Amino acid sequence: MADEVIPYLGFDPMSRASFLGVMQGLVASRAFYVVEREGRVRGFYRASRGEGRARHVARLGTLAVAPEEQGSGLARSMIEAAIATLYADGVTRIELTVEADNPRAQRFYGKLGFELEGTMRHAYRRSDDSGYVDQLLMARLLSAASPG
Q1: Coil/strand/helix, residue 74
Q2: What are 41-80's pLDDT values in tens digits?
Q3: Is the pTM of this model over 0.90?
Q4: Is the pLDDT confidence value at 140 over 70?
Q5: Which of 116, 121, 59, 123 is nearest to 93 (CA)?
Q6: What's the mean per-residue pLDDT of the chain?
Q7: What is the dihedral sign for C-alpha 16, 17, 19, 25?
């Protein structure tokens, strides 16, 4: 619920007690991953798989890194580990969305090989905003030879 993170997390600000319920739902999904350093949660993300004909597709989301970890390489290592794990499980396409007003995240994902595929206009509205926020769909195709 850090001020620097919450606008881009997909959840409106809430108390720690309320967020506990959200966190329990994420953990129950069995597609949620937590990264700890020195016994403290420093980051997390969700990686969900497509079904049927889209079984080769994974979607990354709900990514957050503790503000004091930003710039440390933690987010990069989290995503690279997720990509390697997903690739080993047969994923060849990874999708994510990023807010149009978050250029830092757009650059970050671009450096990791994700490409812009489209804009979802007026995708949602934050509780403290009067306007809507566009989301950008980005994806990365993994080659048959290697995920890198």
Answers
A1: helix
A2: 888 888 999 999 999 999 998 888 888 888 899 999 999 9
A3: no
A4: yes
A5: 59
A6: 84
A7: positive
Tell me how crowded residue 22 is: count the other CB atoms within 10 A of its CB: 14
Q: Comparing C-alpha atoms, which of 85, 89, 97, 96 is closest to residue 56?
A: 89
Residue that is written with structure tokens 């250029």 in the block: 103
Q: How far apart are CA 17 and CA 140, in angstroms?
A: 36
Q: Which of 131, 110, 113 is nearest to 122 (CA)?
A: 131
- Cα separations in angstroms, 23 against 33, 46, 107, 148: 11, 11, 27, 31
Burial 101-123 (b: 16+ CB within 10 A, else e): ebeebbebbeebbbeeeeeeeeb
Alpha-carbon gap, residue 34 to 28, rounded angstroms: 13
* CA separation for the pair 58, 39 (Å, rounded): 29
Q: What number is the average pLDDT over the span 110-131? A: 90
Residue 89 amino acid letter: D
Question: Does residue 68 sit in helix, strand or coil?
Answer: helix
Residue type, 26: L
